[in-house]
Amino acid sequence: MAKNSITAGELLRDSALRLREAGIDTARLDAELLLAEVLGCERISFYTHPECPVTEDEYQSFTKLLERRLAREPLAYITGTKEFMGEDFAVCPGILIPRPDTEVLVEKIIELFGPESERKDPAILDLCSGSGAIGLSAGIRLPGAKIVLSDVSETAVVTGRRNADSLSVNAEVRHGDLFETLLPDERFDLIVSNPPYIAEDEIKGLEPEVSVWEPRLALSGGADGYQFYRRIVSQAQSHLASDGVLMLEAGDGQAQTLRELLENAGYARIEEIRDLTGTVRGLAAFLV
Ligand code: GLN
Q: Ligand 1: which of 82, 194, 204, 217 to mutate, most ligand atoms within 8 Å of CB?
């Protein structure tokens, strides 16, 4: 069949097959999302109108995107956006793509400081903020909060600023290594962080979307994966309010060791943050 007479349904079938052969589990979904991006339509239309013709230009544009995905570039880098807590966050190479696993941390923040809670209008520091997914999602839901994002990566600072503006969150975005952007006496009600926590040697064994494409700076937690946890835990208390909370995402299997780090640092109480499957995704450490 001539390229210019191919239908959306046929193109999807062929491209999903190619993606599947390249080892991509979400082949059909990814093909649909890329074609929807090129055609500027909703995925549902491929089911209601599979006979819809694809023009030569559209075919060419789609092929370029498909080639990128076949090279295992993450879909979010190709489309330039990733949904998190129902909001679209701009992402690009150099930025860790927000994971749905992280959403339970935001839910916990809302539980602690939202309309149902005693504590209002918190000052929140999102350390290693990347796209800003955690801090900005909290800011959207806590309009009185003071939100500060901080990241050592310049790309993260630019992207965090851009997302704060597009989501209309009044956030400050700072550039620097962990706590170095703070004034000595600056204190927060909550310090939240999803720091790099993968053990250096384990990165090469991850999916190519992560190991090849995502920034090592945002993934590697040093030899054992705990380098940033240790640095954050040892310094956070000098920047927490007297009843402050330190909340950390925990990588798979890291919750126990992380809990011990927090206990040894003298927090009064530590709560596990679990997802719907019961897996511990984070810890919240309370000073009182
Ligand atoms: N959750 C990410 C992954 O599993 C890692 C993020 C991080 O290191 N904080 O790939």
A: 194
Give the 3-state secondary structure of residue 14.
helix
For residue 278, the tally of other CB atoms under 10 A from its CB is 7
Average pLDDT per block of 10 residues along the chain, 288 residues long: 76 98 97 96 94 96 98 98 98 97 98 93 98 98 97 98 98 98 97 98 97 98 98 98 98 97 97 96 98
Please tell me what DSSP assigns to residue 98. Answer: P
The pTM of the full predicted model, rounded to 2 decimals, is 0.95
**Ordered structural domains, the chain, with CATH:** 3-71 (1.10.8.10), 93-286 (3.40.50.150)
Atom 5 of ligand 1, residue of closest alpha carbon: 219
Sign, CA dihedral 236-85-260-219, equals negative
Alpha helices in the chain (DSSP H): 8-21, 27-39, 45-48, 56-70, 75-79, 103-113, 133-141, 154-166, 208-211, 216-219, 227-236, 255-264
